[in-house]
User: Fold N-acetylglucosamine 6-phosphate deacetylase from Citreimonas salinaria.
Amino acid sequence: MTNHIDGSILTPDGWIAGRLDHDAKIVSVQGDAIAAPRPPYILPGFVDCHVHGGGGADMMEGAEAIRTAARLHARHGTTALCATSVTAPTGDIDAFLDDVAAVMADPATDGARVLGAHLEGPFINPDKLGAQPPFARPADAAQLKAWAARAPVLIMTLAPEMDEDGALLDALAAAGIRAQLGHSLCDYALARAALARGVGVTHLFNAMSALAHRNNGLCGAAFAHADYAEIIPDLVHVEPGAILAARHAIPNLYGVTDATGGAGMPDGTYRLGSLDVEKADGAMRLADGTLAGSALTMDQALRNLVGIGLPLDEAARRLSTIPADWLGLTDIGRLAPGARADIVVLDASLALSRVIAGGHDIPNPR
Assistant:
């Protein structure tokens, strides 16, 4: 059965006023080009490449926790995501990947589609853990290959100084896994060499050597040389001016939530891997005050980006099309015939009125 949605539609070529027809995929998009869209706004479903949990669940806790988080984020407009690990012992990462594979083998229609895994660590710098549990270790290409055999690994965050001979970067490239630099104290030269290989950057500004006018580090190298980089637009991890500066420097800057179990939940204590994290004042923190992931959802990320000055179409693309492009996926993150029917509909206040994932309406959009 073909369904119809009318409104201002964000297509790959810009806004049109018209109608979108879909079943499980988009059948047609028809209308007239417009310069100034009016509500309802019809956008591609959001694609979150970095999400640890939500709805009270941490994705390291098992398959049902992954499903719980995927349902929560779908209600906030995320239609596809990468389930993200934390730095942990080998056996815990094995179990996490087995759970990712199980969820992918039995997909639900009431949550965001799990595209695969993002391994954040464990090959990160033990002196730049941020809120990662203390299980960092040197790069091991053989271990990466074993993990990739358990479930689709789409992204790995690593510190390049933990990969002294470059063997891990070689293995990631050979496997088609997107490498991202993060949780690193590397210098500018090492970061530049890695970025020249086409790698990305994890949560720009956070847990990395700094942007500076002397003794520049990973962040400075990203400003000068990165093509793709994540940023967390909760306005806590990165202030508005820094987001706007990064937007000018990095062509394909895109938003992620880095959400933890506290996303969509009241203030309280939640888990992040083996750690307890506290939600208060819209942020997630360890007991010592260190930021520990976020409580962000993608609909709020959109409103935040528009609120600091990005046009709605650009903000939407930085939360959908660009992350899909980074993953090499052309069937999501855009409203075009043949793409999956992953769609969000927003009202004049940019509140969600409808979320469609793979042609299915998500219950109770927020």
Summary: The mean pLDDT is 97. Residues 71 and 111 are 4 Å apart (CA to CA). The longest strand covers residues 3-11. The longest helix spans residues 90-105.
